Amino acid sequence: MTKIIGHRGFAGKYPENTMVSFEAAVDAGADGIELDVQMTKDGEIVVIHDETVDRTTDGNGYVKNFSLEDISLLDASFTYKQFTGMVKVPTLKEVLEWGRTFPTLILNIELKMV
Predict the structure, then answer these.
(1) Which residues contact 85 (CB under 8 A, 6 or more apart)?
(2) What is the DSSP letter of 52?
(3) What is the spatial distance between Cα 62 and Cα 44, in angstroms, rounded to a whole number?
(4) Is the dihedral angle over the CA atoms 56, 67, 41, 36 positive or is it negative?
(5) Is the dihedral of CA 14, 15, 17, 19 positive or negative?
(6) Domains by residue range for the chain, with CATH
(7) Which position among 16, 25, 38, 49 bears the catalytic label?
(8) Do the Cβ atoms of 61 and 40 come closer than 8 Å?
(9) Dihedral, 32, 37, 43, 44 alpha carbons, nearest 10
């Protein structure tokens, strides 16, 4: 049986690896979502693809050099201006808690930590 997995959520129309993207993928009928995780300097796991925050947020620098508190202040809307100020970098814990509400949802978690 074929399964539909939303790559970084519904990244074609929503800011990748964000809760709004994951929710949109489920609303569109995806059987699961693929997401990427990195570790912050204080050992927290956040959902972001790149080693840096440069491409997907309004910040600059390596994820590993940010604390969770600092990374949570970044705007993760990047090129999706309609979401400016509304989209944050989620933690893996947030995504897992949300995912529990969908008993059959597949979560494909790609570890990017160095």
Answers:
(1) 75, 77
(2) B
(3) 14
(4) negative
(5) negative
(6) 13-111 (3.20.20.190)
(7) 49
(8) no
(9) -50
3-state secondary structure of 92: helix
By CB neighbour count within 10 A (0-12 exposed, 13-18 middle, 19+ buried), where does 112 fall? middle
Are 48 and 59 in contact by the 8 Å Cβ rule? The answer is no
Q: Does the annotation count 49 as an active-site position?
A: yes
Q: Is the pLDDT of residue 114 over 70?
A: no
pTM, entire model: 0.94
**Number of residues in the chain:** 114
Is the Cβ–Cβ distance between 20 and 87 less than 8 Å? yes
pLDDT in tens, 66-79: 999 999 999 999 87
Span 31-81, pLDDT tens digits = 999 999 999 999 999 999 999 999 999 999 999 999 999 999 999 998 788
What stretch of H or E contains 45?
Answer: strand 45-47
- Of 7, 39, 61, 98, which residue is the catalytic one? 7
Does the annotation count 82 as an active-site position? no
